Structure formats: C-alpha cells, structure tokens
Amino acid sequence: MTPITRFDTGGFTEREPGVWTDEEHGLVLSVHFFPLVPDLPAPLDAPGPLFNGLARSVAAAGAGLIEAELGHVDGLPAVRQLAKVARPEGRGQVFLGSWTVPRAGCSTVLKVQAGEGAMTGMREAVVLAELGAERYFAPHPYGPGVTGGLPYHLADLEEWDERFPDHPLTLVRRTLRRIVPTVALHEQFKALPPFAPQPPEAPRRRWFGRS
After folding, report:
1. Distance CA 153, CA 114 (A)
2. For every one of its 211 residues, what pLDDT tens digit does the chain have, with 9 covering 90 and above?
3. Is residue 186 part of a domain?
4. How far apart are CA 105 and CA 110, in angstroms?
C-alpha cells in the first residue's frame, strides 16, 4: 500500500492495513502513499520559504504548525512537521506529527497522532503561569506573516516535554524519534526523480487531515 516496507511497530497493534494503535498511550500510527505532486510550497533545500509556506497552509486550515525540520528517511530527503488541531467535537487538541518523503510525482508519509483526554490545558496553564503572558505568546518562528489558526506559544516547545512525559505532544515527538530511524523504503520509490515544486494549480492534499 505504501513504499514503506519495514519499520518498528513495537507497542502498537495493527487495526487495519496501514493503521496501528497504542491504546495505552492513545497513539495512532499510520502510513500513507499519495500518487500526487507533493503539497510542499518550496524545495527541501530552501527551509525558509518551505517552513513559512507550511505554516501558512496549516494556519489557513484552522490548525497550527508547532515546528518543522529537515532530515532523511532511509537516506532520502524528507521534512518533519508537528501540528496541533482543535478537536472538531469539543474541547482539547489533537497533535499530529509526520515525516513526508517527497518525490517528483508522489510522496509517502508516516504519521503519528494523539489527542488530549478528559483533562485538557494542564501543560499550557503551568507554562503560562511560569513564564507570564508576555513571554508565553510569541510571534511564529517561521515568519511574521503566519496568522490565523491555533496560536503559537512556548508551551509547545520540546524543552517542556520532560516536565510532561505523558502529554500527547510529548508522546508524538518521542514516537516519531524512535520509529523513523527504523523505516525502510522500497528501492523503486528511492529511484524515482527527486521532488521539485509545481505550480499552485497542481493537485494538492493536506497531510494533517484526520480520517
């Protein structure tokens, strides 16, 4: 179903093809293949425009891009995104992390997500109380033009993960960091031409959409 042929699924149980869950920690792991030109706004060797465009796209959908990072998955250039989305049915947020491996006409994505439970906002409240409102809210690091969507604030930074080891944001970061080094990609996918941005009218899809 995807060019991802192998990765570590320890702690997860397969629920359907391409989807695994960790019930104890409320995590959902999924792999995807998109036979479309990747919806990345700039080349991977232009992190400034790339991250700015990603943040704008996520904000326009009513969500918030927490961080983005360039790296490699099984030797291929890739981009990691970590975003937050308001629960459509009520209080709290869902945190989604992904590694996207783009090629010229397609891409594969490994995604991990986890949502807040009955208690929401504890991490944010503690950090806000410690930093104060003036420091807590900050301009988006990927450009002053990133507006709308969920607000950017310092409680989402990785430096707070140790204080909140069971928070869904912490769990998503930790799980991606553990799994991605174990990913193996099909050799035919690795041999495809590299990604190059396409005009805006090209078919596009949003990686952070929830099924």
Report:
1. 19
2. 799 999 999 999 999 999 999 999 999 999 999 999 998 999 999 999 999 999 999 999 999 999 999 999 999 999 999 999 998 776 889 999 999 999 999 999 999 999 988 778 889 999 999 999 889 998 899 987 888 899 999 999 999 999 999 999 999 999 999 999 999 999 999 999 999 876 555 445 555 554 4
3. yes
4. 17
Which tokens hold the place of 177? Answer: 């960091």
pTM: 0.89
Does residue 182 belong to any structural domain of this protein? yes
Domain span holding position 95: 4-190
Say how far apart CA 156 and CA 151 lie, in whole Å. 10
Residue listed under structure tokens 């991490």? 123
CB 183 within 8 A of CB 113: no
Domain CATH number, residue 32:
3.40.1000
Residue 164 lies in a domain: yes
C-beta separation of 101 from 76 below 8 A: yes
Q: Residue 190 corresponds to which tokens in the numbers above? A: 């690795």
Tell me how many degrees the CA angle 71-15-183 measures, rounded to the nearest 5: 20
Establish if 200 belongs to a structural domain: no
Q: How many domains does the chain have?
A: 1
